[in-house]
Design a protein that fits this description.
The protein has 400 residues and is an alpha/beta fold. The protein folds into 2 domains: 15-195 and 312-397, Aminopeptidase (3-Layer(aba) Sandwich); 208-299, 2-Layer Sandwich (Alpha-Beta Plaits), CATH 3.30.70. It contains 10 helices and 16 strands. The strands form 3 sheets. The chain has an 8-stranded mixed sheet, sandwiched between helices. Strands 7, 9, 11, 12, 13 and 15 form a 6-stranded mixed sheet that branches. A hairpin with a 3-residue loop joins strand 1 (60-65) and strand 2 (69-75). Helix 3 (116-133) crosses helix 10 (383-397). The radius of gyration is 24 Å and the shape is elongated. Its cofactor is Mn(2+).
Length: 400
């Protein structure tokens, strides 16, 4: 293992070394963008990945993890050494695309709105380069993960539960994600927590229904639900330290289907994001207590469910230093922000980082629409940088 700050012997790669792959990898990326598949349904994508890996001369390819996941192993020619994992996600989102690009989604209501097509293509490009050069010791496990986007249990959780770390002897694991707002050719990373945890909650507000013309004869769960939604806002603004990161967002509301009916119950759903584990406990307790107190004050009651979905994404100290070193070797110190702003989005790569030490880095996608926006598209000019980062990271961690 390369220690913190240690130089890797030999000449590191430069970005121009990877531009020769850009045309081919762009074709792969656009094919994947045209043919997106939702979580746990990435059958064509997995087949495409496995066929490409085999065409590179990689002999150890295993499929079927978490349903459609693929893991391939490349052995270096530098002798014995550890195995490190490189992970890319493959799933798309249930969004109608509005990018109007020639390679826009051909699948109605499904699109790659979070760059997973680019992530998969970049790791395939790195696989082709590494299978050809093998300029490292030990082995590299290429992890193509399904279902990063859904609610718990996600593909990352399932792959860890199915034992991929043990099966392939992975000692460290690394991830990368495109990030709009960071210039193409630049990277962002930070030590410690880099992305938030994600929990989800459901509240069933119970009242007594009746005719909308006679609300006094009911216990109106719609009014109770409205008060609960307003009340939840004070948990962040009045009960938590403003210097700590906590977001509570109500995103679902389901009541009656008719204009003249006050229903018996109303369903509320939402999400909680934070960087601190103790705030997950706080949110679970306080959301339940606040909702129940409000409901009972109006003569109603609640049912409450809180789901711990994804932990915070936490970068280990030594692996973060290695990732920073690799990125700086590729693009220079000025193009690597090692204190990038913490992101309140969640990432199920966190499960792999709980299983093994590792690091997660952002790659710039330029001034594009945000991820999960129907107009989003991966910038293909970023492809050589992603490929280059993976290869340089392998030669940094497993340098001969």
């Amino acid at each position: 293992m390369v220690s913190r700050g240690q130089k890797v012997r030999g000449k590191m790669k430069e970005i121009n070394d990877f531009r020769e792959l850009q045309g081919e990898v762009t074709d792969w990326r656009r094919y994947l963008h045209e043919n997106p598949e939702l979580d746990f349904q990435e059958y064509n994508t997995a087949r495409f990945v496995a066929e490409k890996l085999a065409s590179f001369g990689i002999n150890h390819i295993e499929t079927g993890f978490a349903g459609t996941g693929v893991v391939a192993l490349i052995q270096g020619e530098g002798g014995d050494g550890p195995t490190i994992g490189l992970r890319a996600d493959m799933d798309a989102l249930p969004i109608v695309e509005t990018s109007n690009k020639p390679w826009a989604s051909k699948i109605s209501g499904v699109m790659h709105a979070c760059g997973h097509d680019g992530h998969t293509a970049m790791l395939l490009g790195a696989a082709k380069h590494l299978a050809r050069s093998r300029n490292f010791k030990g082995s590299v496990a290429l992890i193509f993960q399904p279902a990063e986007e859904p609610e718990f249990p996600t593909g990352g959780f399932k792959m860890v539960q199915e034992g991929i770390m043990e099966r392939f002897g992975i000692s460290q694991v690394f991830g990368m994600h495109i990030r709009p707002g960071i210039e193409v050719g630049k990277f962002g990373i930070r030590h410690g927590s880099i992305m938030a945890s994600q929990d989800d909650f459901d509240i069933i507000v119970k009242g007594r229904g009746g005719h909308a013309a006679n609300p006094s004869r009911t216990v109106d769960p719609v009014v109770i639900a409205a008060q609960i939604i307003i009340g939840l806002q004070t948990l962040v603004s009045r009960k938590t330290d403003p210097l700590e990161s906590l977001v509570i967002s109500v995103t679902k509301l389901k009541a009656a289907k008719a204009y003249n009916v006050i229903p018996d119950q109303v369903e509320i759903g939402g999400t909680v994001r934070t960087s601190a584990s103790r705030l997950r406990d706080f949110a679970e307790q306080e959301i339940s207590a606040s909702a129940q107190g409000i409901a009972r004050g109006f003569g109603g009651d609640i049912e409450f469910k809180y789901t711990r979905s994804v932990p915070a994404t936490f970068n280990s100290p030594e692996e973060t230093d290695l990732a920073i070193q690799a990125a700086r070797s590729l693009v220079g110190s000025a193009s690597v922000d090692d204190n990038v702003k913490f992101a309140m989005g969640a990432e199920d790569f966190a499960y792999m980082l709980e299983a093994r030490p590792g690091a997660y880095i952002f790659l710039g996608n330029g001034p594009t629409p945000a991820c999960h926006n129907p107009a989003f598209d991966f910038d293909d000019e970023a492809l050589p940088y992603g490929i280059g980062y993976w290869v340089t990271l392998v030669e940094t961690v497993l340098g001969v």
